[in-house]
Model the fold of this input.
Amino acid sequence: MYEVFGSATNRAFRVVWMLEELGEPFEHHKLQPRSKELLEVNPSGKSPALRAEGRIITDSSAIITYLADKHGKITFPAGTIERAQQDAWTHLVLDEVDSVLWMAARHSFILPDEKRVPDVKPSLKWEFDKTMARIAEQIDGPYLMGETFTVPDIIFTHCLNWAYSAKFEVTEENILSYAKACRAREAFKRTRERAKA
Done:
């Protein structure tokens, strides 16, 4: 059985959602970042971490990619053009959406007060808006990979949820429809209930 370390109110949400999609049993340790218990499994104190086969894996995208590959679901096979396109989506979301939101969070409440630069936030919102417009032009189907729900959909939907709570507005109709379709998935709903508990 897998063990997930980290609260589903942060990036551990992605790991729990993936495990719900896969229907795999897991134990969820709802730990806050930098807590003593989380530091014992991940010296950075960051969430999430996963224990699989007696080993620890960190980083949400690495974890969910491992799980998808291991179980042969929510992914295209390695070595295919579709997998390369899927990986391109994953990296685009991580590089141009997740990183922008993370930087905004750092300068809003994560860094010590004296290290925050609030003036950076308008430029981050500008960058976010440009990326949303570009993604809106590329989406061709209910999911990023058309008809097939894959790893980057979990990451992107989680980022869109994060954007909403951070007041980064998404106005593109097809992205809003996309997010609605992803949030309608039963595994997403179960994960959201876990996060609320």
Q: What stands out?
A: The chain has a mean pLDDT of 95. Residues 40 and 127 are 36 Å apart (CA to CA). The longest strand covers residues 2-5.
